[in-house]
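Please annotate the following for my students:
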Amino acid sequence: MNEHAVVIAGGGPTGLMLAGELALAGVDVAIVERRPTQDLPGSRAGGLHSRTIEVLDQRGIAERFLAEGQVAQVAGFAFNRLDLSDFPTRHPYGLGLWQKHIERILAGWVDELPVTVYRGREVTGFAHDDTGVDLALSDGESLRAGYLVGCDGGRSVIRKAAGIDFPGWDPTTSALLAEVEVTEEPELGIRQDDLGTHSFGRVEYEIRDGEVVYADEGPVGSW
């Protein structure tokens, strides 16, 4: 088995992007991802901001996302929309594109690069010495790497096992994401009341003249 200079635990957007960057730099890299495929349940996050599109453009892959997404002015602060159309950038806009598609497109790019992906497996433990890291995988296999990177989320198993603190403050706001079939049409759009901030919309939509036009049927999402 080949030793990899870097093993990334977690094949979400962060892990995929890092793997692509390392591969382009000539680094031997592998991803260990617990999901058997890149498929995501639900839509997840809803798009990309201008700076992210710029970074993707630097790697020559922005058009892959632009071809599937919908361009719009989506930046905002405190419910006030900000118009970026006169910003000094090739991409003065945001892009409406669900995360499930973002991950799929990123994974397609990584598949074209010299990156090994171990799917359906997780890093269950590791031990390091002066020359590298030995990794134990959930299927009983082991890997040897120069470095291990935890791209496995805010509750990172790798970070906790390494004893790395995650300093900060307790959360003051919580969010609930859901996609459901409904018997009555809810009020679509963003609103606030005594219970908090609510954003309801159809999963399927179009952006016409800068405005969101929802489909007449299909799942309703709350984000």
